[in-house]
Amino acid sequence: MLKQTQNFLRKNRTNLAIGAGVLGSIYLGANYVLGKLTEAKNRMASDRIARENLRRRFEQNQEDCSFTVLALLPTATERILELLPVEQITHQLQEKKAARLAKSGAPSEVSFGALSIKDDDGMSIKSLKSEPPPPTGEGKPKKTKAQLWNELKITSITRAYTLIYTLALLCFLTRIQLNLLGRRNYLSSVISLAERDSDAAISLENNENNPQLSQEDYDVNRKYLTFSWWLLHRGWRKLLSVVEVSVKQVFGPLNPRDDISMSQLRDLTMQIRKTVEGDEHFSWLPFLLPPNGDEDMVLREAGVIPEHITPDPTGTSQTSIFQSSAPLKRLLDETSDLIDSPPGRDVLGQLFEAGFNVLLEEKLAEQAFKVVAMPTPGNVDREGRITEIYEVPPDAKTKVANVLAVVTRQAHLIGNGIPNEYLKAMEKQQDLTGFSAIIYSNFDLAKASPTD
User: Fold this and answer.
1) CA distances (Å), origin 342, targets 136, 164, 263
2) Do residues 284 and 339 make contact, with C-beta atoms less than 8 angstroms apart?
3) Rounded to an integer, what distance in angstroms lies between the CA atom of residue 391 and that of residue 402?
4) How many CB atoms lie within 10 A of CB 269?
5) What pLDDT does 414 receive?
6) Are 350 and 432 in contact (CB under 8 A)?
7) Would the pLDDT of 17 be above 90?
8) For the whole prediction, is pTM greater than 0.85?
9) Nearest in space to 432 (alpha carbons), one of 348, 359, 340, 355
10) Which residue has the higher pLDDT, 447 or 213?
11) Distance (Å, rounded) from C-alpha 173 to C-alpha 426?
12) Residue 412 above 80 pLDDT?
């Protein structure tokens, strides 16, 4: 039996060797394939975790943007309300009304809150054009009722529209700033981990034990965020002057006693927007960031650098604080590029549209034109609520004075409302989220590395 087995093996040793080789190859090949499959599976799981962590970080970053806007907005709102004191003008009109009622009865009127425009006021208010005020006993000019109503009209509309633009610009700038810093900080933590452990591969996964930002990174981030000071203190003033000129041209001829339809109000508002927003090549950069050379001034006015540190005008003895920080300069340069980019201008246009839509199509429709909101079948917002729309009938009209009353109240809600319906409407714009995601996920180490 043993001899037969030996003969069999001797005769078939070639075939057996080939078979063993094939089996061995199959075994090795199977192990290789299984190893690659396991590696691919682990890599896919790792990528999935990385994407999920990045998504969570991104969403948190957008929430931070909302809180930041609400924290910064009152700074500009307070100054706009002070410069355009609609309530002060209203008080003067109330005093005139009280004095008039003390002398005579109250004829037919058009209400503006506690105010009214009377048909037998003893003066013509058909055009409400400026007229020389009669001198008072103290030698100071005293504005007529027509002049006060005209001032109220221009001031109330200018204030509300300026606040909508300011809110939209602040929302836009904050999204750019916090998403650029979110990307920069994330890359900084990843690079720090890789430098700490040379055997560790750079991974876009979340790590709860990531090292804190270095003092240099923190300082750069703080200075960069400070540049919102320009919009909050200077940019809105430039914006207000443009809006005011346009409002005077468009709304100037209107009389508070006149009737106005929603279509007319939309047309007038669109005329103002076209003047303020310009064409597709219009740049919002001067409203959002300081001109070249004023960067140190912003840092100094915001208290980031001491006031006594001022650059030498000749540039021979002291270097600009801003120019000496390459990471800070790079952040401002990228911010400027994003503001002037075609996608950036498109996003801003949508934010403006969302803000004016809330004012006109919701607040004025409901409160001035007295239209009841109707639910829209099939439309559900992010909170799961059925959305409602206000459909103003074509023949629906209201007094201009009623429009002014609503606009005056809404100005406070635009600038100080919590929750802020205008900000929520702007943040629902899908292109804003997409624009923010592009900024946050642009992991270009050559441009964004904080270690340069």
Assistant:
1) 56, 21, 30
2) yes
3) 18
4) 19
5) 97
6) yes
7) no
8) no
9) 348
10) 213
11) 13
12) yes
Q: Which of 86, 114, 154 is nearest to 400 (CA)?
A: 154
Label residue 254 left, alpha or beta by phi (over 0 means left) and psi (-120 to 50 means alpha): beta
Distance of CA 93 to the CA centre of its chain: 36
Q: With the C-alpha atoms ordered 166, 167, 169, 170, is the resulting torsion angle positive or negative?
A: positive
Our CA dihedral for 191, 192, 195, 201, rounded to 10 degrees, sits at -50
Distance CA 298, CA 289 (A): 10
What is the C-alpha to C-alpha distance for residues 104 and 122, in angstroms, rounded to an integer?
A: 12
User: Residues 6 or more apart from 300 whose CB is under 8 A from it?
Assistant: 306, 307, 309, 310
Q: Rounded to 5 degrees, what are φ and ψ at 375?
A: -65, 145
| Predicted confidence (pLDDT) at residue 383 exceeds the cutoff of 70 | no
| Distance separating alpha carbons of residues 148 and 90, to the nearest angstrom | 8
d(CA 248, CA 268): 11
- Looking up tokens 């600038």 gives 415
Q: How buried is residue 303: exposed, middle or buried, by Cβ count under 10 Å (0-12/13-18/19+)?
A: exposed
Collect all residues with Cβ–Cβ distance below 8 Å to 391 and sequence separation of at least 6. Answer: 371, 374
Positive or negative: CA dihedral 154, 160, 163, 167: negative
Contacts of 422 (CB under 8 A, 6+ apart): 164, 167, 354, 355, 358, 359, 413, 414
Question: Taking a C-beta distance cutoff of 8 angstroms, is the pair 424, 336 a contact?
Answer: no
Beta bridge partner(s), residue 398: 260
Of 338, 230, 330, residue with least CA distance to 289: 230
Q: Virtual CA dihedral for 157, 158, 160, 161, nearest 10 degrees? A: 110
- Please provide residue 118's backbone torsions phi and psi, each rounded to the nearest 5 degrees: -100, 145
Question: What φ, ψ does residue 260 adopt, rounded to 5°?
Answer: -145, 140
- Assess whether pLDDT exceeds 50 at residue 377: yes
Q: Is the dihedral of CA 355, 360, 364, 366 positive or negative?
A: negative
- Tell me the pLDDT tens digit for each residue of 30-53: 666 676 666 666 666 656 666 677
